[in-house]
Amino acid sequence: MIKDLTKGSTSKVIVAFSIPMILGNLFQQLYNIVDSIIVGKFIGTNALAAVGSSFAVMVFITSILLGLCMGTSVVFAQFFGAKNIKDLKTTMSTSFIFIGIISLVISILSIIFVDNILIFMNIPEELCKDTRKYLIIIFSGIFFTFLYNWAAGLLRSLGNSKAPLYFLIVAAITNIALDLIFVIYFDMGVSGAALATIISQALSAILCIIYCIKNLGFLKFKMNEIKFSKEIFKLTSSYSLLTSMQQSIMNFGILMIQGLVNSFGATTMAAFAAAVKIDSFAYMPVQDFSNAFSTYVAQNKGAGESKRIKSGIKFSIILITVFCLFITIVVEIFADKLMLIFVNSSEIQVIAIGVTYLRIVSLFYCFIGYLFMFYGLYRGLGHVKVSIVLSVISLGIRVVLAYVLSPIVGLKGIWWAIPIGWIIADTIGGIHYFKSKVVV
After folding, report:
1. Residue 5: inside a domain
2. Which of 103, 196, 387, 432 could form a disulfide with 179 if both were Cys (CB 3.0 to 4.6 A apart)?
3. Is 3 within a domain?
4. Full pLDDT tens readout for the chain, 440 residues
């Protein structure tokens, strides 16, 4: 179903469009979370640490593609909002060719340099074998990550956020079933968990592509319309390359933090792996809400509806505040219970480290929520460079403080560096909004 986000009640339109995206990404997060739960419970702490470190690497590398797809979807939304179907179709074919080639190159290079990645990440020697196995299989499926996110980005740019959700539900259920079969029944270890993940990703990608072909009749291509346009590429790349840069910077900072955490040993790695899963799952809804908000802003920018953008900003701030305060309370109260999802109760030290992390970082979820909103706003308006600057500020401060404070106060220095980066970036994002008057 195609949805015009330039009409109707602002709050109802944003909520109705964002809920399927939030649910969809929560299911997508289940891929690695289920891997971690099953690996941690049935294989052990070292395997959990290997999968957890792999997740940071995997997110960084795939973030390049996600950024390209997210940036391109903004152009899709703007052309759709302006009812410019001709250029929308040209953007589709151009972006598919460009990002598809990039995904294959990334996949091949990641496999070739996997050992260098392990060295860069400070992976302990006893974990290298499992981490290497897991990553090679995951890297082999990168093209499916591109396929799904490109097709899902197209559907969402047209106001259809429900179809991608359905495909992710199917994929998540498949992933859980295959995890149980490969890891427990066939005793395939971390390789089984990785294989379950890429098969599930392939399924969601194929289903999404088939849906687009069958249901977007008004975008049906003739052979001469499948082309690579240099003009459209310049326009698209101004969004997609910068958004990709933003996503890469964000996740490179996380990768740097992961490398620092790894230097504290396997127990800390396992605790961090579990805590970060809980952390990301807790604030993932506001991140996805902000991605939905970006599409809303893009469509309304294309239609010249600045008043709707302003009202959308006010509504988003209220919603993010209420949700994040609720999640903060939940995590603060149940931090130890949440850690037990990933590790056995006998892992007392792992649980203690994870609980400390969660009880520090969760106090500041509102600030990461506001930061995601700024990312979505500036990306939707086409001011992607501002999003990049905010990412650099947030993660630059986080990384520098983590490396400065950890030798002085230990792990708590790393944990406190995270919200400090959020707060400073929020402050700068707010000052820029009011001073530059980006929405008139």
Report:
1. no
2. 196
3. no
4. 566 667 777 888 888 878 877 777 676 666 666 667 777 777 777 777 777 667 767 777 777 787 788 778 878 877 877 777 787 888 888 888 888 998 999 999 999 998 888 887 777 777 788 888 888 998 999 999 899 988 888 888 887 878 888 888 888 889 888 988 998 888 887 888 889 889 998 998 999 888 888 887 666 666 666 777 787 777 777 767 766 676 666 667 766 777 788 778 878 887 887 888 788 788 888 888 887 888 788 778 877 778 888 888 889 899 999 999 999 999 999 998 988 887 778 888 888 988 999 999 999 999 999 999 998 888 888 787 888 888 888 888 888 898 899 888 888 898 999 899 999 999 998 898 888 766 64
Q: Is 1 within the bounds of a domain?
A: no
Decide: 274 and 358 in contact? Cβ < 8 Å: no
| Domain enclosing residue 88, as ranges | 10-436
Of residues 404, 425, 426, 428, the one with CA closest to residue 416:
404
Euclidean distance between the first and final Cα of the chain, in Å? 31
99 lies in some domain: yes
pTM: 0.70
Count: domains in the chain:
1
